[in-house]
Automatic annotation (TrEMBL):
Family: Belongs to the sulfur carrier protein TusA family.
Taxonomic path: Bacteria, Bacillati, Bacillota, Clostridia, Eubacteriales
Source organism (scientific name): Garciella nitratireducens DSM 15102
Designated name of the protein: Selenium metabolism protein YedF
Chain coiled-coil ranges: none
A matching Pfam family: DsrE
Length: 198
């Protein structure tokens, strides 16, 4: 029996993540991922191809059925976003804003929430996430708080800039992670093997 992964109504990156989990649970065979928009179809297709799986797509009344076949456990392991961890230095993400990108603030908040959710689902994860400037708002009260707490539970160290918390009057509102200072932040970034700034 072919397993169905129904991702209708789910936003990026959830269709890819659900497909990834389903593929990881099997050694060979097929799954059918069901999506209801072109973007999700393309994202799942590209992911499956990156995993060296065979993909067949059928469309019925605007719904896409992607049959993904994993043969003899030969699909590649994919970290989706991040490289493998090294024994030397840490992988750090510095988040300096509570939104991603320029333009619509609403879209920027949606993208940030989606990014932090995706971090909870991929491996390897960063060793530390440092929040600065308006990014500290995410560790106090935001729609992303649940995802940040999950990252901490998964072993990611969460640090918020104390000066930034003071500036926004949020030091007493911190709900996840620890308060840090510029010296510790600079030292961590200088010693990191890889860093990403958002």
């Amino acid at each position: 029996m072919i397993k169905k992964v129904d991702c209708r109504g789910l936003n990026c990156p959830q269709p890819v993540i659900h497909t990834k989990k389903a593929l990881e649970e099997m050694t060979q065979g097929s799954i059918v991922t069901i999506v209801d928009n072109e973007v999700a179809k393309e994202n799942v297709k590209k992911f499956a191809q990156k995993m060296n799986a065979k993909v067949e797509i059928e469309e019925k009344e605007g719904i896409f059925y992607l049959t993904i076949t994993k043969e003899n456990g030969k699909t590649s392991q994919s970290s989706i976003i991040f490289p493998e961890k090294s024994e030397h230095g840490e992988f750090i993400i510095l988040i300096g804003n509570d939104k991603i990108g320029e333009g619509s603030e609403e879209l920027g908040s949606i993208l940030m929430k989606s990014y932090l959710y995706t971090l909870t689902e991929v491996e390897p994860r960063p060793d530390k996430i440092i929040f600065m400037n308006s990014g500290v708002k995410l560790t106090c009260s935001s729609s992303s708080l649940e995802n940040i707490k999950k990252l901490e539970e998964l072993g990611v160290e969460i640090l918020s800039c104390g000066t930034c918390l003071d500036y926004y009057g949020l030091k007493q509102e911190l709900q996840v992670g620890k308060i840090s200072n510029m010296y510790t932040i600079v030292e961590a970034l200088n010693e990191a093997r890889k860093s990403i700034v958002l």
